[in-house]
């Protein structure tokens, strides 16, 4: 609590994010995707935008190539991702979503849309548009417009 007796703003943001993720995981589990890892959503969205290499994915997610390889190895074992030859470079392998990966991404996107509709119904368009504006400002336009975050947005 702050001196005013109101909950700390940063803690509220954290709790809201945790609740959102909890509801998202419950929804995707109900859709048959109960084996999702912590990084899966970012990978699904990234590869949903365009296939890439391990190196490209590591750069997008700002992790090491080894870390990206471990995530992809795990997602490949669970049937979300597959590696295919790069038609423009015989030495490279491109990461693609499998049919299961596409379905998991669609389920997550459906949840995101329904979540926002629910908020709009409860609080009104004006409040949610204002909240979206505040969150955009907090995140920073420069951060939001980077290529790796642009891929995650849509």
Plain-language structure description:
With 154 residues, the protein is mainly α. The protein contains eight helices and two strands, in the order ααααββαααα. It has a two-stranded antiparallel sheet. Helix 2 packs across helix 5 (99-123). The protein starts with 8 loop residues before the first helix and ends with a helix.
Kindly name the structural category. mainly alpha
Query: What oligomeric arrangement do these chains adopt?
Result: single chain
Number of helices: 8
Number of strands: 2
- Average predicted local confidence, pLDDT: 90
Gross morphology is: globular
Cα end-to-end separation: 36 Å
Fraction of residues in β-strands: 5-15%
Largest sheet: 2 strands, antiparallel
**SSE string:** HHHHEEHHHH
Order of strands, main sheet, comes to: 1-2
Q: Provide the helix percentage.
A: 55-70%
The gyration radius over C-alpha positions equals 18 Å
Poorly predicted tracts of residues:
none
Question: What tags apply to this protein structure?
Answer:
154 residues, globular
Helix/strand layout:
Blueprint: H1 9-30, H2 40-49, H3 54-61, H4 65-77, E1 81-86, E2 89-97, H5 99-123, H6 125-139, H7 141-144, H8 147-153
Antiparallel strand pairs: 1-2
Helix pairs in contact: 2-5, 2-8, 3-4, 5-6
